[in-house]
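Re: that backbone. Tokens:
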């Protein structure tokens, strides 16, 4: 499960970076047409890129520190939805599943058989 969390975290983070770039393009187009608050959308796109990188980091630490990876990926999932809303839907789903798999992939206590 840790390997699946690694893969889902990296893929979710990459798609999150793409979502941030798309949000920045939309904000840039809004700025070109002098729409109000288009600068805010550009700023949230930059935030989404940073959050996508955070999701990649969460996926990268999954094999070694699964509990920390689950927390990082969950934070990245929620923060991405706050930043760019529906642009983050695919990334959010992948990061949420990756966080769940990382949490379930923790080391279980040893079972003794008698």
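Recovered sequence:
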């Amino acid at each position: 499960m840790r390997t699946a969390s690694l893969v889902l975290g990296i893929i979710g983070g990459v798609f999150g970076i793409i979502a941030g770039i798309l949000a920045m393009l939309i904000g840039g187009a809004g700025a070109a047409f002098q729409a109000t608050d288009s600068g805010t959308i550009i700023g949230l796109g930059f935030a989404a890129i940073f959050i996508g990188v955070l999701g990649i980091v969460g996926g990268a630490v999954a094999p070694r520190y699964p509990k920390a990876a689950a927390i990082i990926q969950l934070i990245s999932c929620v923060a991405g939805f706050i930043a760019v809303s529906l642009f983050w839907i695919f990334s959010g789903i992948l990061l949420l599943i990756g966080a769940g798999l990382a949490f379930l992939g923790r080391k279980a206590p040893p079972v003794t058989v008698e």
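The chain has one domain: 2-104. The helical segments are 2-32, 38-60, 66-84, 89-104.
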